[in-house]
Amino acid sequence: MNNFDTELKERTAYVEKIVYDYCPKEEGLQKIIIEAMNYSLKAGGKRLRPMLVLETLRLFGGDEKEAYPFMAAMEMIHTYSLVHDDLPAMDNDMYRRGKKTTHAVYGEDMGILAGDGLLNMAYETMSMAILKSKYPQRAALAMNILAYKAGIYGMIGGQTVDVINENKEKDIDTINFIHKLKTAALIEGAMMVGAILAGVDEQAVETVEEIATNVGIAFQIQDDILDVTGTLEELGKPVLSDEKNNKTTYVTLKGIDESKRLVEDYSEKAVNLLESLGGDSEFLKNLIIKLINRVK
Amino acid sequence: MNNFDTELKERTAYVEKIVYDYCPKEEGLQKIIIEAMNYSLKAGGKRLRPMLVLETLRLFGGDEKEAYPFMAAMEMIHTYSLVHDDLPAMDNDMYRRGKKTTHAVYGEDMGILAGDGLLNMAYETMSMAILKSKYPQRAALAMNILAYKAGIYGMIGGQTVDVINENKEKDIDTINFIHKLKTAALIEGAMMVGAILAGVDEQAVETVEEIATNVGIAFQIQDDILDVTGTLEELGKPVLSDEKNNKTTYVTLKGIDESKRLVEDYSEKAVNLLESLGGDSEFLKNLIIKLINRVK
């Protein structure tokens, strides 16, 4: 393990601990739903989005404590989207990251309610953060941006277009729309929240958004590539699921080599923009490169 | 139609117009999800919760414009809960208010996503309201209270206990828990939001919460009564659905007469508390009485 991998592992554990601090207590007559929510939240993952909130805030020298509730909220929103995506009426996945999905363990009704509970709790957490923040205006703006990126003009919009085009031939514009909204939007939200909480100006927030867009799209194309080249062991989910589902992806439209080249392009653009911001961006830069070139 | 009924009709139309002003435009590749959300929002109903936001704010002489986005958000949260409740994995209802339910028209996947979209948009709307409010602190507190009442310690908690006890014998404590959380919590949220946005003190907010609890429980017992005594025409949904689903309710446990007496008790308590607040509470009082003694 090189230095960056060791550092990443430590920082991931740190981020995870913060997220866990916001997990609700499993008690009351409604205990089962809280268990289902925590099961979903604690099922692992890269913790990429809360890490991007924190690392972007750090890049601009913000107050770390301001980020904590937003990091938890970010992961709750990401997790709810996975829980609902896995439902029988959606992707119908029984496994994710090598573990049973939430509805597979708790039933379909609890899967729906656990997702709702996580989404609602994200906003409960952020609204409490506004009340407690040293900079309530920043916190309110951060929440508003995240709500926009998570909603019908962001992630939910992307999920919609993904679902209605399932098993259909798609053109590259539709695929780009899905990648931009379904995947990039939350990454944009995460980095913008970090920047806004640190109190940077609009110009810097825009640059951060552009970095995140490039990271998000590269990340999703890499996902399409990994679906073809990965193994069950590496990914913790069935491979070739895209092919089996007759899904058009970057790889089926452009081929592996061109897709890999595009990942390089987006990646380079993100890194260049990041360096243009100044500050100590070493960790963020390595994180972006690692994410985009990941093998699982 | 007596004077109050005429007044109620006019004020309902006024409330509905405000809610409609916040409906998203049906455009973009993701248009279908926006149509599904608006279909759900525009499917009628009493508009009780946004009306309670507005009327409670009026009682305390608040600035009406402060209430508008919260009224819309309130109805979005109520509507998302109906859309998800109607799903096949939940109550599996194909009709509500005499109209096809959202998933019946748009499919189960869009039903899930439309509910998610409505819940998220509620918070997007409220977070924007905080940014635009003359009293951002009040608006942030109002949103935090509503998030609490809509979440696992409120409505979602109540739905959970309702779902896991379906087709089971329930004791009166469990039924009270469900009524308090599944139904009363959002009514509490609505009235508390109105009071908070008007800038009243904590004591008054607590009294308002107590009024709303009594209204909510009476409303729900009346719902159980109507399930036995109503007709399809009056209710716009199949009658005796509780009995068919082998559901324990106030009526099956306590009988119709005792249930009716309890509705009277809760109703009287709500009205007495309301009058203790002073101010022109005539319309709110009539609204509460009307709601509780409704025949549909």
From TrEMBL, chains A, B:
Keyword Acetylation: no
Listed EC numbers: 2.5.1.10
Enzyme class: transferase
Keywords for the protein's UniProt record, in alphabetical order: Isoprene biosynthesis, Magnesium, Metal-binding, Transferase
Reactions accelerated catalytically: isopentenyl diphosphate + (2E)-geranyl diphosphate = (2E,6E)-farnesyl diphosphate + diphosphate
Gene Ontology terms for molecular function: (2E,6E)-farnesyl diphosphate synthase activity; metal ion binding
A GO biological-process term: terpenoid biosynthetic process
Cofactor (UniProt): Mg(2+)
One Pfam family hit: polyprenyl_synt
Domain of life per record: Bacteria
Assigned GO CC terms: cytoplasm
Family per record: Belongs to the FPP/GGPP synthase family.
Name listed for the protein in its UniProt record: Farnesyl diphosphate synthase
Species whose genome carries this gene: Eubacterium ventriosum
